[in-house]
Amino acid sequence: MELKITNSQRAEVLIEALPYIQKYNGLVVVIKYGGNAMINEERKKQVMEDIVLMHLVGVKVVLVHGGGPEITETMKKMSKETVFHNGLRVTDRESADIVQMVLAGKINKSLVNLLQINGASAIGLSGMDGHMIEAKMKDEALGYVGEITRVDVTPINHLLERGYIPVVSTVGCDMEGNVYNINADTAAAHIAGALGATRLITMTDIEGVLRDKDDHTSIIPCIDLAETEELFKSGIISGGMIPKVECCLEAIRHGVKKVTILDGRVPHALLIEAFTDEGAGTMVIKDKNNADDF
Fold first, then answer.
1. Is 35 a catalytic residue?
2. For 25-73, how does the pLDDT look when each residue is reduced to its tens digit (9 = 90+)?
3. Which domains does the chain have, with CATH numbers?
4. What phi, psi does 5 have (nearest 5°)?
5. Which is the catalytic residue, given 60, 138, 244, 258?
6. Which of 34, 50, 67, 185 is the catalytic position?
7. Does the active-site annotation cover 185?
């Protein structure tokens, strides 16, 4: 049975959102989107609608994306074996070309198109454009998997100043012309820091940090740097959550005040997080004792 929402309830929702709209108007928010959170086309459409709404109420949104599952699928279609080493994709030169094709081509332009058909002006970039993301080889065993050495956000700022949503694929390069596959969470952390972003929201396929991994209602809404150390030691932050939280900490170290791990599978999770009292996911901040961090 369809839930009926009255006009009065709609008005209450808008009134609750108003202080947050005022708070973030004119400020930069970086959204990292990728992985399994991108697989469902209907959810992807809703995420793009949320981003357009944020843009139209004055938030300067920068969308940074990955696309691991689609890279794997494309490699499979091309009869190219996918090999992982310590959880990271081994990327030879041929694989780097495929990564560039899928991330900077198909995925990037499809996201730009979705944003534009929903009413926003968007332009796609890769980390290679303007040498925005410079990198070096992280580990010879991984091939062309990049470790970021420098980020230049000048192209992003030019687009923001002109009212566009920059859509950035995480492909890097070096001065010799080599192409590198860059971890999207890490790239988003560096970009958010370089932009002086107010917030980084990383959308994934998990609810956030859980107190009990078997209890999906045990989400921890907010943690600071001191608490993350204890959660690492106790094993509450473990497995695949470790690199996600480490990227949050990296963003904090680069000067971002708030970083949120958000479940991209939840309808309109972005709007719930940005414009409601309850929020969603797990927020990581520097210090709960500092009121400015909230």
1. yes
2. 889 999 999 876 777 788 888 899 999 999 998 999 999 998 888 888 8
3. 26-293 (3.40.1160.10)
4. -110, 125
5. 244
6. 185
7. yes
